[in-house]
Specification:
157 residues, mainly alpha, 82% helix, elongated
Length: 157
């Protein structure tokens, strides 16, 4: 019975960020078309790459979250708050960038998201090092996305 609860907890942990990503994608369904039409820098990846990368990153988020909530750490509550804060910031970035097409606001927003992810990595590492380390690809992708976001702002204002 205990292993079944752990499996359910793991699946829920992974499904939460995947659902948030799916919801953001559904609310920004014009994103791939808009991305094709906007002026982009030369280092801009093809639109098809984004859902692939984000799916992997959301799965890694869920795994990290699961590792944290399974711990007995005194920092667990703080980690959960930071985790859901960054997930909320992540969700709204897509809406600001694609639906509102406010690239400067989206750039500022992604900087807040990066700060939240750094905080998440720090607290996750203090609980379980691998949980924090699994978020390094997410941070690197966000840093790239911030540079891309700023370039799109500069080219489309």
């Amino acid at each position: 019975m205990e292993s079944r609860k752990k499996i359910e907890s793991f699946l829920i942990s992974v499904m939460i960020p995947l659902f948030i990503g799916f919801l953001a994608g559904a609310l920004t369904s014009n994103s791939q078309e808009l991305y094709k039409m906007m002026e982009k820098p030369s280092f801009s990846p093809p639109a098809i790459l984004f859902p692939i990368v984000w799916t992997i990153l959301y799965i890694l988020m869920g795994i990290s979250y699961y590792l944290v909530i399974q711990s007995d750490s005194d920092l667990k509550d703080k980690a959960v708050k930071v985790y859901f804060t960054q997930l909320l910031l992540n969700f709204f970035w897509s809406i600001i960038f694609f639906n509102l097409q406010n690239y400067l606001a989206a750039f500022i927003w992604i900087l807040l998201l990066i700060a939240a992810v750094i905080a998440m990595i720090v607290v996750f590492c203090r609980i379980k090092k691998i949980a924090g380390c699994l978020q390094i690809p997410y941070l690197l992708w966000l840093l790239f996305a911030a540079v891309l976001n700023f370039a799109v702002y500069r080219l489309n204002r």
